[in-house]
Structure formats: structure tokens, C-alpha cells
Here is the input.
Amino acid sequence: MLRLAAASLAGTAIEFYDFFVYGTAAALVLGPLFFPTFSPVAGTLAAFGTFGVGFVARPLGSILFGHFGDRRGRRPVLVASLLLTGASTVAVGCVPSYGSIGVAAPVLLLVLRFLQGLGLGGEWGGAVLLTAEHAPAGRRGLWSSFPQIGPAVGFLLANGVMLALSASLTDAQFAQWGWRVPFWVAGALALGGLWLRSSLVESPRFLEIDDHARVPLAEVVRGHWRLVLLTAGALSVGYAIFYAVTTWSLAYGTERLGVGRTEMLACIMAAVVVKGSLTPLVALLSDRYGRRPLCLLGCAAAALWMFPMVALLATGAPPLMFLGFLGALLAFVTMFAVLGAYLPELYEPRVRCTGAAVGYNLGGVLGGALTPIVATALAEHSGRVPWGVGAYLTGVALFSLGCFALLPETRPVAVAVPEPAVG
Here is the structure.
């Protein structure tokens, strides 16, 4: 289990590195480089628009890779998704700017971002299911949390590289070529991930299935559509919080508050370190007290903390900004640390790869794709403290709280539970 969990964590970290490095670049440099005819705010909005395309592609990736994951196995999905995400990320780093090839530059950026999202949409389902379906029922929450640590590790890798380049290069050097280096690094990371995953064995739960779903998506839509919508709505607050902290606040702090790139990245990264470190502990609590109670607690905490978070951000003081980010990410991890066990337990094994991944990634469309765009627009028409952003995030948290309240508990069931409350 330790070797399997470590390989899943490493692969997930690499793929999320690819995804996050784009978000950081969108907040810092992509606007003026690829949308130079726009105003600064409009350029940032356009860059966040291409960022959002990746989230739109993720459910499509879940459908595509989920089909093969439910019919052919979880392991092949991990290899194919890693190849697609890694190749498209390296290609982003090679796209010439608007000044070199004109409108073709943002078009290429859009296409490659779509491919990134398509690959990541298949990654989560394969990595989480391979771990969850190997894990003993009594410790499924703990072992399934390892792939959930991957996003934090990927974020830290992406922003660590960006932070090092930002601190060591001039603004002109960073804008000219420095921002491309993290995208090129993705190629070496992808090769390492493929090597790690080459030794993984197929999920025993998948091998036990006698009658594989012929068209998994059709079965999910027919028999689990309400469950998919509820999980997507429930998870939207987690995405909203994470990308408000890691993407929108980075742009807001550097452009509106005049805080340096290095200071903003350091504050965000410090909060993510704490969040990632606590993931296994929270997941272990879910094995003891249940998945749903922790999700409800995290949602309630998020609803209470969003206004304090934006107020602390608006101070521009690094210690206070860190405190605001930390509170938000603690609410986030209380929910998302348990999802590696919770979502697979909600779906029957024959459609689990499709159902769990589609619900997970639809939540990304609702929360992750829209939040940087909506928050940037709301902050533009507010004073120094962006209360509108706090209101928006609080509303998302209350919406997700209602969705979680309608989902059933699954612990300590070893197989999928029936769905009388939602199906």
C-alpha cells in the first residue's frame, strides 16, 4: 500500500504541477504577453478565461478516460493521462507571444490549455480509485488521502519554481523567457512519473467485476445523475476557495495592492504547506468519525471565514494575508482530504471511474473555472476591501453545504452504498 500510495501521490503531484503552473503564469504574465491590446484588468480576465478552459475540459476528460477506466482498468488511464498533460504543458512553454505571431498565440494557448484539462480530468479518477480499491476498508480514508496530497505538492513545485525565477530574474527577463522554464520542466517530471507508474498493478476491485459497463456514462446518467449533480455542487466550494487563494489573490495582491510577486507567492505557499501536511490527519479522522460530518464542518467553516479572509488580504501585510489564506485552506482540507475515499464509496464499482471523476471535475467547472473571473470582476468595482468577493465565496459555501447535507454517509462500508436518498 505504501508503494502504491507513493506512486499515486507522485503522479498526481506531477499532473497538478502542470495544471497549477499555468494558473500562476496567468496571474503574473500571460495577460500582457498574449492579450497586449487589452487593458491590464481585461488582459488578466482574458488570461483567466484561458485558465478556465482547462476546467471545462476536465469533465470531458473524465468521460473519455472514465470510459476506459471502467472498461479496461484503472492503470492504463494513469499512463495515458500523464502523457497528454505533460506533452501539452511543455508545448505551452514553446508558444510564441502575441507580438511574434499575433492572434494565433492566444488560440494556441487555448487549445493547449484544453488538452491539459482533458488529461487532468482522467488523472484524478484513475489515481484515487487505484489507491482506494487496494486499501483495506478501515483505513481507506487514510490511504486514499495520498493522491489528495498530490495537488498541494504540485502547487508547491509549480510556485517554488516560479518563486525562484521571480527572485533571481529581472522583470524583463521573467517576462521574456523566465516564465517558460516551469513549463519545460514538466517534460522531465512526466518522464519520472511514467517510470514510477510502470510497476503498478491493476485494482483488485476492477478485476472482480464480471460484467463491465458497456457505456459507463450512459449508466451514470441513467442511474446516478442526481448523485453526480449533488457531488459537483458540494465540491464547488473547495475549488472556489483554492483558486481564490492561489490564483485570484495572487493577481489581486500584485496588481491592486502593489505587493511583490515574491511576497505573495511565499504567503500562499506557506499556507499550502500546512494544508498539505494536515491532509492525512484529516483523512484518518474520517475513518473514525465519517466522511460526511467532516465535509459539513469544512463547508460551515468556509462560510464563516470568507469575509475575514478578504479583509486580511486587503491589508497587504504578509503575516495577515498568510493568516487569511491559512484559515481558508484549513476549511478546504477538512472537506477535500476525505474525497479520495468518499466519492468512490458513493458509486458502484462498474461505473465508479466515470461517476466519481465526472462529479469531481464538474465541481471544478462550477468553482474553479468561474472564481478567478468572477472575483476579478467583483474586485474591480469595489474599494480596497473586496467585500463582493467575500459575499460570492460565502454564497458558494452555503450552496455546497446544502448539497453535502443531501449526500449519504458511507463509512465504514467496504463497497458502494445504495442511494435511496439521492438516486
Observations:
- The chain has 17 helices and no strands.
- The chain has a mean pLDDT of 86.
- The two ends are 33 Å apart (CA to CA).
- The longest helix spans residues 216-255.
